[in-house]
């Protein structure tokens, strides 16, 4: 079993970079519309929703650490890093108020970005937020909550390992890829990572992390509804993952039917109290790359990088 502490509260921060940020940010937010308008108005000025203006001289964080998760977001990355002023939105809320608290805070960030012509970013994931810049009423983990971005394929040309489709030895030709979530901690869970992955298997590894994250989050919220007497959780090291976990990650209106429909398993191993490693199950005898390249995983995990349903934010 894996035992980890669950915090009573968690803190998340978002920032909006702009050429000019007024001092009266609360006034701008009181004009917010949409499904979170009442929540924004009711939480403003409390620890659940604090908004401050900052400039480069007063920042306690470095805008240069905020990156683009996708190549098409590079222009937004540069605009964020080069901006002279920022609106910083902070939410410190009980773990039982998630995910509503972070959705309200991000909705406020999106509203300020639209009002100021600025670029919003998530300071927990370290990523600029890509359009559509609106917070949907229903929580969907795939909506930029995990910091789940692929690294440059083939390590930007530095990796020269053979491709497994051309050379069977290429299945384990390299171990360039390490993937780690950045965002589960705001819901009171440890982050997840998978390591020693060969470049051609990066998407399969990413979808394993996504599926495991969604399963753990669903189970975590079910545990919180029981009103546990203490703030310590125990997890089995063997984690079964199913088709529904992968579908629920995307929040798809239709199910993503994967074959085989039977669950597949991963093993969780504590690295630190706030980080768990994801690896093949104990009864798998090959490497992590043999596992990712073989027929153990559902086929859909090898080609889905964006939501197949592409639902509109609402």
UniProtKB/TrEMBL annotation:
Gene source species: Actinomadura verrucosospora
Name of the protein described by the UniProt record: Uncharacterized protein
């Amino acid at each position: 079993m894996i035992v980890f502490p669950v915090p009573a509260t968690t803190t998340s921060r978002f920032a909006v970079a702009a050429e000019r940020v007024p001092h009266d940010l609360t006034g701008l937010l009181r004009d917010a519309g949409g499904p979170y308008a009442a929540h924004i108005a009711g939480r403003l000025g409390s620890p659940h929703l604090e908004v401050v203006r900052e400039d480069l001289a007063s920042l306690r964080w470095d805008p240069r650490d905020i990156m683009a998760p996708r190549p098409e977001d590079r222009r937004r990355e540069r605009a964020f890093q080069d901006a002279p002023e920022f609106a910083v939105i902070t939410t410190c809320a009980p773990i039982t108020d998630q995910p509503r608290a972070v959705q309200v805070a991000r909705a406020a960030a999106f509203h300020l970005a639209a009002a100021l012509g600025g670029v919003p970013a998530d300071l927990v994931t370290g990523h600029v937020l890509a359009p559509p810049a609106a917070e949907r009423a229903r929580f969907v983990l795939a909506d930029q909550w995990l910091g789940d971005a692929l690294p440059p394929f083939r390590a930007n040309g530095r990796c020269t390992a053979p491709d497994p489709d051309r050379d069977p030895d290429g299945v384990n030709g390299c171990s360039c890829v390490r993937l780690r979530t950045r965002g589960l901690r705001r819901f009171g869970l440890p982050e997840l990572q998978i390591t020693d992955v060969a470049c051609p298997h990066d998407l399969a590894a990413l979808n394993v992390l996504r599926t495991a994250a969604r399963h753990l989050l669903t189970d975590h919220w079910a545990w919180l509804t029981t009103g546990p007497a203490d703030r310590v959780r125990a997890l089995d090291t063997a984690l079964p993952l199913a088709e529904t976990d992968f579908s629920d990650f995307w929040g798809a209106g239709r199910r993503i039917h994967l074959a085989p429909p039977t669950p597949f398993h991963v093993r969780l191993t504590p690295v630190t109290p706030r980080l768990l490693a994801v690896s093949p199950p104990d009864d798998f005898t090959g490497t992590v790359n043999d596992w990712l390249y073989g027929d153990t995983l559902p086929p859909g995990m090898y080609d889905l990088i964006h939501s197949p349903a592409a639902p509109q934010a609402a």
